[in-house]
Amino acid sequence: MSKSVSLKVQLSSLPNNPGVYQFYDADGKILYVGKAKNLKKRVSSYFNKKQEYGKTRVLVKKIHSIKHIVVPTESDALLLENNLIKKLLPRYNVLLKDDKSYPWICIKNERFPRVFSTRKLIKDGSEYFGPYTSMKTVRTLLDLIKSLYPLRTCNYDLSEEKIEAGKYKVCLDYHLGNCLGPCEGFQTEKEYHDQIEDIRQIIKGNLKNSIQTFKQQMNGFAEEMEFEKAQRVKDKIDVLENYQAKSTVVNPKINNVDVFTIISDETYGYVNFLQISHGAIIRSHTLEIKKKLDETDEELLQLGITEIRQRFNSTSKEIYLPFPVTVDGDLKVTLPKLGDKRRILDLSERNARFYRQDRLKQIKITDPDRHTKRIMSQMKSDLRLSEEPRHIECFDNSNIQGSNPVAACVVFKDGKPSKKDYRHFNIKTVEGPDDFASMEEVVFRRYKRLLNEEEPLPQLIVIDGGKGQLSSALKSLELLGLRGKIAIVGIAKRLEEIYFPDDPVPLYLDKRSESLKIIQQLRNEAHRFGITHHRNKRSKGAISSELVNIEGIGEKTAQQLLKSFKSVKRIKEASLENLTAAVGESKAKKIYRTFHK
């Protein structure tokens, strides 16, 4: 049976239920795992339409067989898809980067429980809180707990029989006040477990119970005139309140909520997760997801929510999102627009953005090729180009009140200045300050020369100016037969509009876009390079004219003097003998008399 017939039969037998589908190639290797509300419609869509993206077209060509699993709901499909991706690692699915083992806080299943950090989960009935994304957070919490509650650190079996038999003796921690000596029966099991309950609440982010308990203790000691003990308890209240002030960044009424946002570029998505408990952020984590098939932000966020909630064992019943996505049916989804809820969503997005910036900085240092490829890919997408603009040239005119008109061409290769390829142009065919005609001249001269010398042409030309300058440059490309062969855009200074040929409506790129930054850098570099040349030309002209104004001194003599003395100032200070040696006695006397009247 041919591949097409085989697939046709497989497609016709798919159900209209929610589920997960798997694509395999001719060798039986897994290519892709996906979820669907309606399996038949979703899988058929791969074959019924022309795919917009190249990677998806390649995937469809490789599909040889399809398997599917039907599940009761769409949220079940989401969970199953996530598990299968992690287990099977299909080539065309997004890559969830995370190979770390995270720290947990353990309350040990013992008669007098110990509280400590661990990276191993042992199923012995102990309680584990976490995982935490930072060991620093764990240490801070444990230091807080240790400063508030005297807990045992020994690993003795403190059974009732052994304590009554007097098997253990108190250690140094007891004498230092860090433990109340349950090993000798100095602390009851109830007292100890009351402490553990308060600790449990602190770890969950609820400090209210502990603060209330300590306030009652403090007032009790104060009434008994035990002011030193009351002061020690007050110190503990201060520690708790200080910790609460540092960790509370949202409205205390916001309780047990997960917040998710996403920032993405051409190749990666970054999903940030904030966990909020009793008005405090108790966890923040950003998941980096590598795109494989031009997945949308909705698809990546949906995958990120499922993965993160599984990984961190989240039991929150409400989530805040920037836009709607399909999630577990039991979850309440809120899309905040104003107030404290919106602010916490903005905070999450800022975390994702900072994480992305940090990753990009690291990549720029450790993997410059990947950094360049990402920027080139972004520019191709933003500027609607047919290929990556590895070679870009930018033109700028410089003239002040029509004097000494010049133009500059700067060249960027792989997003970086290639200064050896920069070129200056003196305007030859245009009289007066005519920017349009000047642009037409320099673009024609530049590419006529490149064609004659069979040099490589750029993939993108940037013209510093709006529609007028762009039209002038287009005329030259048309004369040379290059129109349509090289992409060309104009950038207007006022609002940084990007103009395209034959399109009256400009493109406005995001002000933080890397594509816009590269174009602005090109424009500024062209302006700097052009202005420098213009100033040099203008100053040389001014110097020459001061000497030429002397009767009997022409352009040639002026140049000869400048070559000998390097500046007009030195010519003015030169002796008659030195001037005579440079240009002869007759001219030397005229120059000397002019500057020594």
UniProtKB/TrEMBL annotation:
- Please explain the role this protein plays, according to its UniProt record: The UvrABC repair system catalyzes the recognition and processing of DNA lesions. UvrC both incises the 5' and 3' sides of the lesion. The N-terminal half is responsible for the 3' incision and the C-terminal half is responsible for the 5' incision.
How is this protein named in the record? UvrABC system protein C
**Keyword annotations from UniProtKB, A to Z:** Cytoplasm, DNA damage, DNA excision, DNA repair, Excision nuclease, SOS response
Q: Which gene encodes it?
A: uvrC
CDD domains the UniProt entry points to = GIY-YIG_UvrC_Cho
Localization recorded for this chain is: Cytoplasm
Family of this protein? Belongs to the UvrC family.
Residues in domain GIY-YIG?
16-94
Subunit and interaction comment: Interacts with UvrB in an incision complex.
Q: Which PROSITE patterns match?
A: GIY_YIG, UVR, UVRC
